């Protein structure tokens, strides 16, 4: 197989691997809002944001980092 064709296939796989999570995170809350109530989706998004914040605040690497 020529090198250019192999590179093109690798680039296609990388593109799919990078695009799939973005599509899921962009379309997931909308699909969930269509299937359930919007206030439930807002609560889920707010809860996940709070959990991410708590995990980041509990990280020793982030707590020890100082900006000057």
Question: Can you describe what's shown?
Answer:
By secondary structure, the protein is an all-alpha fold. It has two domains: 1-35; 37-68. Helix content is 84%, strand content 0%. It contains three helices and no strands. It has helices at 3-35, 38-57, 60-63. The chain is flat. The mean pLDDT is 82. The chain crosses the membrane at residues 41-62.
The general outline is flat
- What is the typical, i.e. mean, pLDDT? 82
Count structural domains: 2
Order of helical and strand elements:
HHH
Distance between the termini: 53 Å
Number of helices: 3
**How does the helix and strand content classify structurally?**
mainly alpha
Keywords: Membrane, Transmembrane, Transmembrane helix
Transmembrane segments: 41-62
SSE order and pairing:
Blueprint: H1 3-35, H2 38-57, H3 60-63
Task: Summarize it.
Keywords: Membrane, Transmembrane, Transmembrane helix. With 68 residues, the protein is an all-alpha fold. It contains three helices and no strands.
Question: What labels would you give this structure?
Answer:
84% helix, mainly alpha, 68 residues, transmembrane, membrane, 2 domains, transmembrane helix
């Amino acid at each position: 197989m020529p090198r250019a064709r192999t590179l093109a296939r690798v680039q296609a796989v990388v593109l799919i691997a990078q695009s799939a999570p973005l599509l899921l995170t962009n379309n997931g809350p909308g699909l969930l809002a269509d299937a359930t109530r919007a206030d439930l989706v807002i609560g889920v998004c707010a809860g996940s944001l709070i959990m991410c914040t708590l995990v980041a605040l509990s990280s020793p690497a982030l707590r020890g980092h100082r900006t000057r």
